[in-house]
Amino acid sequence: MRLLVLVVPLMAAIASAQTPAPPSPESPLPTFEVASVKSSKNAPMNMMTRILPGRLEATNMPLRMLITQAYRVRAYQLQGGPSWLDSDRFDIVAKAPDGSTPDQTLLMLRALLVERFRLKVHTVTKDAPIYALVMARSDGTIGPKMSKTTDDCEAISAQRAAASRARGPDAVFTPPPPTERPICTASAMSSAQGPSGGFVLRYRSGGQQLDVLARTLSGLLERLVINRTALTGLYDYDLEFSPPRLLATAPEVGATPAAPIDDGPTIFDAVHQLGLKLESTRGPVEYLVIDSADHPTED
Length: 299
Description:
Helix content: 10-25%
Largest sheet: 5 strands, antiparallel
Shape: globular
Structural class: alpha+beta
Strand order of the largest sheet: 1-9-10-12-8
Radius of gyration: 20 Å
Oligomer: single chain
């Protein structure tokens, strides 16, 4: 079995499926002390954003992903934009003031996009198709792939934060390998299997609220998912499914796109293994509309 480990942003700030309220005019966006923005020469798959104490590093990131991170929206919530929104990629290294929180650092990224990319956006709310995450069984029992966590995540998170502070300003918590059970965190892994070589994704989460699961599903399905299970507390769950489009590479210009590969259970099958299901419905969805953006001046 061929394994491919995926880099997944696990910060709750980035995972949020709705745009946070913008700062008031009396509270301007915080800014980085210094920032470098350059066109990237890295391979297309080598994309990563890291928020470290006092620093943000973005490697080989297209403007679309920078915007979704800075404004905390999913890709399906972003509309408009220049023709190079996905094709041109950038490396950013920025110094944040000491003591800056991840939330503040993302606001600084927002300010950087406004200043260096001349980004102008506005929000609009529309009635649109959404999914409701609900219980699959009338008796309210959960499925074989989900269980109440037995870990004390509040204490574990406090221990990790203390250990990170003790290691120094650049220390960050490193999640366990995807092959190990995640404890109060999450991991993702893909494997190639089946006669057609299709990919199967496995998301493993430990000690997570079901609102986090709903946000994860929103990104995978490119549609807003609302948690209506009424389940409270923290859960461990395991999602394993075949994504027909998620790992497809873009075809060459003029080439005929390959047929999607469906070599395993669907994401709907995987959700059902949790004792849950996704019901189609409609509801208000907030979109971020790009009015204009320019290539940045490099330094």
